[in-house]
Amino acid sequence: MPFVFAYPATQDLAALRWGIFFAGLLTVAQFSFWGNYLPRVYPTHLRGTGESFAANIGGRMLGTSAALLTTRLAHVMPGTTPAVELAYAAAGVAAFVYAAGLALSFLLPEPPRDLPE
Asked: Please, are residues 92 and 1 in contact by the beta-carbon 8 Å criterion?
């Protein structure tokens, strides 16, 4: 999804609107794994705590910090206007987040077949 911020944000507003729509769909869709994966990984007595920790620390604390990182990177990005620099910084941060998520997903434990009672 980083390409949504690099080219369309600097060249084509209509493509940017469609790109943000589909990026939003894919971003929200990744939370669908919670219903199948997280209950199998966390023991019954820790499920609420584990899911809340994953959502709040990962999604809200680390995710919000990406906005600060994006604005800091915008100052060192190439571009003719601040908006173009910000678009390239957003694309860079998005590329890093998606690459890190893909790489770290291989470290996730394989859940057991049967759910504990």
From this structure: no
Residue with tokens 């470290």: 107
> Over the stretch 66-112, which tens digit does the pLDDT of each residue have?
888 999 999 999 888 898 898 889 888 888 888 888 898 899 888 87
pTM: 0.69
How many angstroms separate the CA atoms of 5 and 71, rounded?
14
Note the Cα 68 to chain centre separation in Å. 15
Identify the H or E element spanning 74. none
Distance CA 42, CA 113 (A): 13
Contact indicator for 73, 58 with CB cutoff of 8 Å: no
What are the Cα distances from residue 33, in Å, to 40, 41, 43?
Answer: 11, 12, 17
Residue that the structure tokens 């620099």 belong to: 85
Q: What are 26's two structure tokens?
A: 């894919």
Question: DSSP states of 3-21 as a string?
Answer: HHHHSHHHH-HHHHHHHHH
